[in-house]
Design brief:
183 residues, Arc Repressor Mutant, subunit A, Alpha-Beta Plaits, three-stranded antiparallel beta sheet, 47% helix, elongated
Length: 183
Amino acid sequence: MTDKIDYKKIILMTIATAGILAIAIVAPNALQVLKPFFKNKRKYNPEYYLNQKVKNLLKTGLLKIVIKNGKNFVSLTDKGERKLLYYKITEKKREHKKWDGKWRVVVFDVWENTRSKRDILRYEIRNFGFIQLQRSVWIYPYDCADFIELLKADLSFGKNIRYLLVEKLDHDEKLRKHFGVSY
């Protein structure tokens, strides 16, 4: 079991599954899901820790408070739904089957005045598993069109990011070796 648990992901998935949850019951419901992760961690008060995580998700705009019949509920925002989609896509990445012999290439041309968004883009595609072929050219062997479309939407890059499906690439021996794929 890994030491690093993505509580944000677990909370978002719990709320997405339930639709909306009353704030008073977020902790107990989520605590049932999280209990196994708190074993042997005496320094945490699970309920307090979880409430802090929910507050952080509210601050970052992934969750919102909805008032119905005078009671407070939490639900996902559009940003929270995109983050959850991001989690699902990155998990799907791990389910690669056999390589289809095609390379996925991302090419981008992002202006200097949006450097921070460009840095986020580089971080995300590197973290997803792409490797840099040239300065703004990245390559990956498996389908990831959904992931790239999500990045384009989240970062508002539109046509500044291009996704190419390449059937033939010369001198790709090192790439195939790096990714552990063959024809």
